[in-house]
Give the backbone structure.
Amino acid sequence: MQDSNLLTQEAVALLKQLIATPRVSRQETAAADVLAHFIGEKLWDNRREPLFTMHRDANNIWCIAKGYDSERPTLLLNAHIDTVKPVAAWQRDPLNPTIEGDRLYGLGSNDDGASLVCLWQAFYVLCSRPQAYNLVFLASAEEEVSGCDGIERVIPQLPPIDVALVGEPTGMQPAIAEKGLMVLDVTATGKAGHAARNEGINAIYRAIEDIEWFRTFRFPEESLVLGPVKMSVTIIYAGTQHNVVPDSCTFTVDVRSNECYTNEVIYDTICAHVKSDVHVRSFRLNSSRIDANHPLMQRILTLGPTLNGQARTPFGSPTLSDQALMKWPSLKMGPGDSARSHTADEYICISEIEGAICDYLAVLDGLQLS
């Protein structure tokens, strides 16, 4: 086995390069170029034979380990390249990777750079070790905006996938289910009139009735790991001036689905209950899950405790990832802490990177998927 310290040093060096390269969603080209160059340098073994094949479409890069056999199950390792825009409260330069003690500060260090470089290192090591499964590594773009030129663009080009391990900051705890997302634009319609007289139909009052329904309605089926479907009214617009009864009120609803319902079923239920017009932006982002008895999940549970001493405990994640676009079983596990994501002075610990590389290799080397 390669020395974990050397693997960590190389992972940190790559992560520093990525941090220094702007890679906000839909603007990842330069970062994808950096990653493609780094991966290209790793393509050949000591006998000048390829360890894997490398592919790129737009800003997505994927690699398939040598020895692919369509008769074997295929495991996908996935993490994303892109970041959100830095918030205004940063006290450091978000694009200047800075190490202070055990911490590496920089935009995207925690979400999702650490998982990306750790999964790559695990993939690279395993390329030279025959496994009972096919291994694919995918660095995807546009994850933070669920863009159509991210993983969704690549999926038709991948070999058939049986299961995926998605790298996201979970403290190396396994998230066996993830809530889906559906955004609704809802419009209540009234009739304009002068506010001083008893005329018109106030669209705000009509909207209030439906907003109250969204606040109080409970879908009967609740998930053991994800809990209930959650609906939140998050934006509202109405009115043009104080003395005009508004004839339109629009509001936005954030819907987080569990695995008990498809987004289509939730949408149909909503339309059957509210009086306003409901427009869905997309049905694409459904809830995802993996059976707790899946061989990948069971292998993870054989690991010792995490770096902070906690036992590996399957949980349900409320946050969205590329899993929402996967049609196969998947779980989410990676270094870092979700609470650091999208925050000022985001960081990852060097020790977390080293621990994640070791954990990924312990799980994947010798894994039996069938």
About this structure: The longest helix spans residues 109-126.
